[in-house]
Design brief:
CATH class: Alpha Beta
Order of helices and strands: EEEEHEHEEEEEHEHEEEHE
Number of strands: 15
CATH superfamily: Endonuclease/exonuclease/phosphatase
Radius of gyration: 17 Å
Number of helices: 5
CATH architecture: 4-Layer Sandwich
Number of domains: 1
Shape: globular
Helix content: 10-25%
């Protein structure tokens, strides 16, 4: 029997400025997340090095993202040519999405004969990119933010420390300062996407909200097999960009693959119309 995409779905009817507020309402379960013409569908997905529950979930996740109609994806937990996965995972993922897809990878640390970090993939050509190294401080390990700029927008993929709230706040402050320096006066929307390891009411999210607008709703994203908390987000920088949020959702079921087995996180997306 075929499965259809099932999402915890939210719709926004208000036109947003970079600092605007919006009202949301919940769509009935089972709604298929059709994408409006010219809408940009951004996805934040901690893919767990494509091997949390299976040997290689890259093909399944690529199929799910194609089914979803994703345009830009932040992929946390990426191996690059190390002994755990002797392959360049971000490149492999982009190639499975299609020949038009571009990508950038940021190494957070050298590990096991290769490296480990975060990636950003997009169906539009990347014209500039930045890798922001985030020291671990008193946290568990160093992190990284990868910012990939296209002609119309910037997607910045990040994975914050899971062990310490103070460390997360320091990391969030550092990456915000860097991205504001790069894009604070830009008219392009800058989407910060990824696993922030912070709940919606946490000090980290309150701090980020000073410079960012949270687009994604606080629906449960982790763990994928029995979601209990929200730690994966899509935010947009409060710069000079103008945009309209159309819908946002956490997807819990796909026709093409079992999302509960593909990773230990669920993907969250936001549809945005850039003005």
């Amino acid at each position: 029997m075929k499965r259809t995409i099932v999402c915890l779905f939210f719709l926004c009817a208000a036109v947003l400025s970079a600092s605007g507020r919006y009202g949301m309402w919940r769509q009935p379960s089972g709604y298929a997340p059709d994408k409006a013409p010219r809408a940009l569908r951004i996805v934040a997905y901690n893919v767990g090095v494509f091997s949390k529950y299976t040997g290689d979930s890259t093909p399944d996740i690529a199929d799910m993202m194609i089914e979803l109609g994703a345009d830009a994806i932040a992929v946390c937990e990426q191996d690059s040519c190390n002994r755990r996965h002797n392959t360049f995972q971000t490149q492999d993922f982009a190639e499975q999405l299609g020949p038009e897809w571009d990508y950038r990878f940021g190494s957070a640390m050298q590990w096991n004969g290769g490296s480990y970090g975060t990636g950003a993939v997009t169906s539009r050509k990347i014209i500039r990119s930045s890798v922001i190294s985030i020291p671990k401080g008193n946290g568990y390990e160093p992190r990284v933010c990868v910012a990939a700029e296209t002609a119309d927008y910037v997607i910045a993929a990040v994975h914050l420390d899971h062990s310490n709230e103070d460390v997360r706040m320091e990391q969030a402050s550092l990456l915000t300062d860097e991205l504001v320096s790069l894009y604070g006066r830009s008219r392009k929307p800058v989407f910060l996407c990824g696993d922030l390891n912070a709940t919606p009411d946490s000090p980290t999210l309150r701090q980020l909200s000073e410079d960012w607008t949270v687009l994604s709703e606080p629906a449960l994203t982790y763990p994928s097999q029995n979601p209990e908390i929200c730690i994966d987000y899509i935010l947009v920088l409060k710069n000079r960009a103008r945009y309209r949020l159309l819908k946002t959702a956490v997807c819990t079921e796909f026709e093409s693959a079992d999302v509960s087995q593909a990773s230990d996180h669920l993907p969250v997306f936001a549809d945005v119309m850039i003005r």
